[in-house]
Amino acid sequence: xxxxxxxxKPSLDDPxxxxxxxxxxxxxxxxxxxxxxxxxxxxxxxxxxxxxxxKASAVRKALYRLMEAHAAEYEKDTDSKGWETFYWDLDLEExxxxxxxxxxxxxxxxxKQLKFEEDHEFYACPDRHRRILFEDAIDxxxxxxxxxxxxxxxxxxxxxxxxxxxxxxxxxxxxHG
Length: 177
Ligand SMILES: [Zn+2]
Prior knowledge:
Layout: H1 15-38, E1 42-43, H2 44-50, H3 56-68, E2 72-78, E3 84-90, H4 93-119, E4 122-124, E5 132-133, H5 134-139, E6 152-153, H6 157-175
Antiparallel strand pairs: 1-3, 2-3, 4-5, 4-6
Helix pairs in contact: 1-3, 4-6
The structure holds zinc ion.
């Protein structure tokens, strides 16, 4: 369980933050995010140097994906000769808002799902190939569409418990701000 109170600040130690970054920027993005955390204000050249074994284009792509995911930002410095240097930093502040919005959506979805689970009965064969609504199970004479074995009513407690657990996990995070 990982409950986030009102003072929550996103960090790479948080599995939800890591999950978000992997989803948006891949494992390479997460690796780069860790690198930026450990090397604040590192130049693009130094990043490429640290990941020498990779293709520069792939490292650049991962950096930009990280930026598009609002997890990194850069500052451009132009010297007197017109040479540009990019300095990168990890910036997770925006993710705080993004994740809270996602959790709010997820919570809404879970509440709808819970209501649906409570209001409906499901059937499945002993191998649980498919979870079929009672109304739909009638249409197929309570035979599993996969193995054709008879289906029996399912105890929805497990599904409801999983949804409840996630709801409890999300709610304290959203109650404040
Ligand atoms: Zn079956």
